[in-house]
Amino acid sequence: MAQIDAFFKLMHEQGASDLHMVSGQQPILRIRGDMEKVKYNVMGNDDLKAMLYEIVSEDKIKVFEETGDIDFGYEIPGLARYRGNLFQQKYGIGAVFREIPSTILTCEQLGLPGVVSKLATLPKGMVLVTGPTGSGKSTTLAAIVDQANKLRKDHILTIEDPIEFVHKSQNCIVNHREVGLHTKSFSAALRGALREDPDIILVGEMRDLETIALAMEAAMTGHLVFGTLHTLNANKTVDRVIEIFPSSQQAQVRSTLADALKAVVSQTLFKRVDKKGRCAALEILICTPAVRNLIREGKTYQIPSAMQTGKKYGMQTLDDAILDLMNKGWIAAEDAYVNCIDKGKFAQFLKKPPADFTDV
Q1: CA 177 vs CA 160, 163, 180: distances in Å
Q2: What ranges do the domains of the chain cover?
Q3: Over the stretch 299-319, which tens digit does the pLDDT of each residue have?
């Protein structure tokens, strides 16, 4: 048993999402969104480095010492998996770990709208799950892939850095590939994937132009592609995909994306005020013919209006989802205001002026 395992067990017992270990500080847990110090000695650089290096492979250590940061995965059988990041900072080594539960929650258990679970049955196309870091994108994607694993008889291929949720083959065959361990890059793995007879491809993160271009190509050639982006809402997601390409290619990319994209699910995580825990507000864009025309014509600013009129297809805006959670008494008005798009719509619910004076 590695020395650091005791901290992971404490993290699990406390229901923490993240563990921060940094030279010159005590360990810190993020519990329901708040940072809380662990009653433990301030960690010195050498002691912490020895503790961290105990669970990192020699290849990863070599890359870390050359570059100053590295992603990796770690698992405690019977407890959970952890996504780790090592980095160098002013006072020495640092690390952050995110717990990946060993049990994959279903769409129903997560309380996701019915249309989200239906995305697992799409025959082809691209589905993007977006949101800021720590918003639960991986958890939502895992639930959708789990649904596909149960309902379909296909080959599911995941490409991640590192591998997070581990799916056991059920009706589907599931293969997991880790960037840096099983393949050099997301783009290299995607190029290889087209020769590996997949039906569903999960791309852990769409980081660059080549990866996005290959993902769209896969979606256009009969595969169902799931991916993540760090964007805040549906129309910003469409803009981000298009704007990563040179201006000379953007007209063609708009046309390709309009045909390839099937749905965008953008989520924001909130701390619940009615009980311990967190909940997600989801913006859902379904690419109907009307939405495809908006993408093709570069009128992404009209997408929120299309979502308002497309509720019968399962679409909803982020603000409507936030308002619903607030009306249920699940989240605070202040949190709703901070995370909404239309500040004027939520200002009326605040008991005092907003904390962010730039919104006034």
Answers
A1: 6, 7, 9
A2: 5-101, 107-347
A3: 999 999 999 999 999 999 999
